[in-house]
Amino acid sequence: IYSLDFSRAPFGMLLRRKATGTVLLNTTVAPLIFADQFLQISTLLPSRFLYGLGEHRSTLLHSLDWSTLTLWARDVPPMESFNLYGAHPFYLMMEEGGDAHGVFLLNSNAMEVALQPAPGLTWRTIGGVLDFYIFLGPDPNMVIQQYQQVIGFPAMPPLWALGFHLCRWGYGSSNETWQTVRAMRNYQIPQDAQWNDIDYMDGYRDFTFDHEKFASLPSLVEDLHKHGQRYVMILDPGISSTNPQGSYWPFDEGLRRGLFLNTTQGQPLIGKVWPGFTAFADFSNPDTHQWWLENLQRFHAHVPFDGLWIDMNEPSNFMDGSEDGCPPGELDSPPYTPAVLGNSISAKTVCASAKQKASVHYNLHNLYGLMEAKATASALIQILGKRPFVISRSTFPSQGRYSGHWLGDNRSQWKDMYYSIPGMLSFSLFGIPLVGADICGFSGSTSEELCTRWMQLGAFYPFARNHNTQNEKAQDPTAFSPAARTAMKYVLLTRYSLLPFLYTLFHRAHLQGDTVTRPLFFEFPQDVATLELDRQFLWGQSLLVTPVLEPGVDSVSGYFPRGVWYDFYTGSSVNSSGETLKMSAPLERLNLHVREGAILPTQKPGTTSEATRGNPLRLIVALSSNATAWGDLFWDDGESLDTFERGSYSYVVF
């Protein structure tokens, strides 16, 4: 289906799609540069419709107007034009006529991708090799499936992972945390999991809890379990290094076994994170996975957590490099430094020269979050014997096999709510379907209107968690007026009623790499009007979500591709020729539409996924214009390992 031609002068190659003659790659446009610490290759692109290349805060469709995207894992609140928490050197390209292809550069070094209006693209990396995978689709869904055949299909999450999660930094005590859980139950607002941020720890040290302020934590977790709910807490990879010898097992034992990142001198590299001075666990060493498991087992004996939230794993460091800076040399001061935030590859992380078991940090930096997630998922399987639930901040290709992702430390602003949609859709392309942003915003003060609109959107993030920073007023649903609270409860009940549908979408993602949330152009690749849309999205093929993303409005405009669309709540239909329609959107309403020809399995919602599971199932049938419809349902016990592989499930086609 393709032809590959080599040219000697100018040196390069041309890749063509045979069916259309479209040239997908033409690397003769600029010289190939191939040095040890500087590799560069350029290509012309067949169109301007380019997506992917994470992690960045931007529109879904990238601008080719001389923008440079840097890939180097960095702890920074998301802002435009900086390298963020993860690295995903993959792009999806839509060609004229609706065909699609993808390109993946398997390289973990610091990298820049320079986009040019030609249209053209330059890959520039400071290590490794040029190892390209080309996926020829020809449909965008197939490109993403083919990409995941290489990097691995995402893990099947437990059903409770798809419920509503609640968290904040600064509850201050387990009793205050418990109060919030009780208030949620009191108002009968759905909640599957309660989380804690770093304030549960004793002195911000991993594998400890504050025996004064969080004395009742074990009882709280027991109470959650009694009510069919789950508990998740945060863990950081920086291990406190300043405790008296013999008083903090995680550090003493890690030191004894030699499991930390070392300086070029062979001593543990010491940086600074929440607990103060810290050493950093080396997850490229298999022995570290065993030590991580033992620490988690010891903690689980006191606080029987159900899932883990791994943060700060870029890895983040409050110092540049280490307490002693970084040594001179080609790793810490390479001949070429990509356009990273801070203008140094050791900015707010560890020295690139740091030694790890598998290689130097220079090569492993972008893999740190992936390796930690792998250790964490493996430990959870051994401790619980069930499907692991892990949410990670730093990510790399194949992360979806081990964890989900949240979009980091956003702000309580309308534009942050909008940017969460292209963020979520991009991670769908990266094979990490379990993704969402902090609902109502992490830093800054939310407003009742913003939080209500954001809860409506967030109820349709695959991973739905409301999270807040310390010293801000509460923003959980119980903190607002009866009207806002009711609107939030209503949209969460809508989500819970759709859990059978959402769970089935995750099964299809796990089985064959289908996306869960997807951009409209995935379903309508021939419709050029869909190529730039990122203020709406689909669940699967058939549920269209059109959120309100600005203040002070009671209507919203959305694009409806050609065909019949039914209002999810009323069943009234609109027959679109491919047009933008204005719809009523009072504060209590989220516009949801079902595509003709779809059958959605639903369930009478309860206040937890466990309660919902026992309720009657219902079908929503949206007949096509020729009176046909199709849908499916995957159902199992919601938590056991490998149910599909073992045949312990029901799969029903309607």
UniProtKB/TrEMBL annotation:
Residues 154-505 form the Glycoside hydrolase family 31 TIM barrel domain. GO terms for molecular function: alpha-1,4-glucosidase activity; carbohydrate binding. Residues 43-112 form the Glycoside hydrolase family 31 N-terminal domain. It comes from the Eukaryota. Residues 513-600 form the Glycosyl hydrolase family 31 C-terminal domain. Keywords: Glycoprotein, Glycosidase, Hydrolase. InterPro entries: Gal_mutarotase_sf_dom, GH, Glyco_hydro_31_AS, Glyco_hydro_31_C, Glyco_hydro_31_CS, Glyco_hydro_31_N_dom, Glyco_hydro_31_TIM, Glyco_hydro_b. It holds the Pfam family Glyco_hydro_31_3rd. SUPFAM superfamilies: (Trans)glycosidases, Galactose mutarotase-like, Glycosyl hydrolase domain. The keyword Glycoprotein applies. GO terms for biological process: carbohydrate metabolic process. Belongs to the glycosyl hydrolase 31 family. This is Lysosomal alpha-glucosidase. It comes from Cuculus canorus.
